[in-house]
Amino acid sequence: MFIDGKNRPEGVKQLWRGPAKLVVEHSGLYEYKVFGVLEDCPPALLADVYMDLDYRKQWDRYIKELCEKECNGEIIVYWEVKYPFPLSNRDYVYLRQRRDLDLEGKRIHVILAQSTSVPQFTEKPGVIRVQQYKQSLAIESDGKKGSKVFMYYFDNPGGQIPSWLINWAAKNGVPNFLKDMAKACQNYLKKA
Description:
Elements: E1 13-17, E2 20-28, E3 31-38, H1 43-51, H2 53-59, E4 63-71, E5 74-81, E6 90-103, E7 106-115, E8 128-129, E9 132-141, E10 147-156, H3 163-191
Parallel strand pairs: 6-8
Antiparallel strand pairs: 1-2, 2-3, 3-10, 4-5, 5-6, 6-7, 7-9, 9-10
Helix pairs in contact: 1-3
């Protein structure tokens, strides 16, 4: 684990501390590896919050539209993301699965997502369809009250994205998302 600068490979930076500790490795164009700890957010709760799309609409400020639909016997997610002016919004159509595993006495929540194409979600004018998206997320206990998070993320947003926005996403977007998610976990407990 690379948290707190211990055994951190060159080029990997710890970006944010607070209720979460986060390290993001920019491993390629639009490709990231995230290692982190969300304190005070148990693994099962974090996985539930991540999977609850209706709840995510309440706390994720970048969502324009988000829904699930059964298509050809599979549950497909449609997600439109707000981009800053003057850039066009992006949308995603993807398969998503969650598995809760017991490995050598450890409970690990695994969430996988990958872009797909189905005729039920046609492209919208003025919105760029992200054709290449893949995410692998593993969540386990930190041994206390929180969660260790391991994520591989690849997303080619298409079009002409300025380098300042790519850099912002790597340095601020992912940490801010996890900060919002940590807060969403606390509020999820209150809502239940």
